[in-house]
């Protein structure tokens, strides 16, 4: 009886751990997707507004987190130069 209870508990913990792992991976995938979309939108809008996007700006975009991209997207509308977007 005790062995069965222990085995059942272990199975439940494994399933809970698996569910948490799947949920964590799903959340990471959602965040990566949102970051990729924000990056793509910002790159396209920078090109439309300022023309050529310099390589150092492209590198900065590729390394950016979602919160940084959101800030830059907001600044895009008030900036007169591409440098002002990234101040």
What does this structure look like?
It contains 4 helices and no strands. 7% of the residues are buried. It has helices spanning 2-50, 55-63, 66-76, 82-85. With 87 residues, the protein is mostly helical. α1 (2-50) runs parallel beside α3 (66-76). It comes from Alloalcanivorax xenomutans. Residues 33-82 form the DUF4351 domain.
Overall, the morphology is rod-shaped
- Number of distinct helices: 4
Category from helices, strands and their pairing: mainly alpha
Strand content: under 5%
Overall residue-averaged pLDDT value: 84
**Level of helix content?**
over 70%
* Number of structurally distinct domains: 1
Whole-angstrom Rg: 22 Å
Low-pLDDT runs: none
Largest pleated sheet: none
Straight-line N-to-C gap: 66 Å
Order of secondary-structure elements = HHHH
Number of strands: 0
What labels describe this entry?
0% strand; 4 helices; mainly alpha; 87 residues; rod-shaped
Set down the secondary structure blueprint.
Elements: H1 2-50, H2 55-63, H3 66-76, H4 82-85
Helix pairs in contact: 1-3
Protein name: DUF4351 domain-containing protein
InterPro entries: DUF4351 (IPR025587)
Domain DUF4351: 33-82
Task: Produce a short descriptive summary.
By secondary structure, the chain is mostly helical. It has helices at 2-50, 55-63, 66-76, 82-85. The protein has one domain (2-85).
């Amino acid at each position: 009886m005790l062995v069965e209870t222990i085995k059942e508990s272990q199975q439940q913990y494994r399933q809970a751990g698996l569910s948490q792992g799947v949920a964590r991976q799903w959340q990471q995938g959602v965040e990566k997707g949102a970051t990729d979309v924000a990056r793509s939108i910002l790159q396209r809008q920078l090109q439309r507004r300022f023309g050529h996007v310099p390589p150092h700006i492209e590198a900065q975009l590729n390394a950016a987190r979602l919160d940084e991209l959101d800030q830059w997207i907001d600044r895009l509308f008030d900036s007169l130069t591409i440098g002002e977007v990234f101040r």
